[in-house]
Write a structure and sequence with these properties.
elongated, mainly alpha, 6 helices
């Protein structure tokens, strides 16, 4: 079974990344780590300094890759989602007519 460490290793090789590149990518996703901490992830499981790669590290690395390649996504102003009937003209009219009938 493939684990997060294997995924990180494969991505590092496929994208031809150095440890410093990976540290920079993680910074883009607001995740701080050092090259020495990172090297522990790339060691074999039998090595005494081996460290398993957690889900958060892998997720932040992938987020950082997206930011590096596409740029940071601008946040759109939050608006409350409209109910489906508001978007449909006949249903909206029907709801308005019902509301007006109750107010009379």
């Amino acid at each position: 079974m493939i684990n997060n460490n294997d995924i990180m290793k494969k991505l590092r090789v496929a994208l031809k990344l150095r440890d410093t590149d990976i540290v920079d990518i993680l910074k883009l996703a607001e995740f701080e780590t050092t090259p020495s901490e990172l090297s522990a992830i790339f060691r074999t499981e039998e090595h005494k300094n081996y460290m398993p790669c957690g889900d958060q590290l892998l997720r932040r690395f992938l987020d950082g890759l997206i930011i590096r390649n596409r740029g940071k996504m601008e946040k759109k102003p939050s608006t409350a989602p409209q109910a489906a009937w508001v978007k449909c003209e006949p249903l909206r009219k029907h709801k308005e007519d019902q509301a007006n009938a109750r107010n009379d």
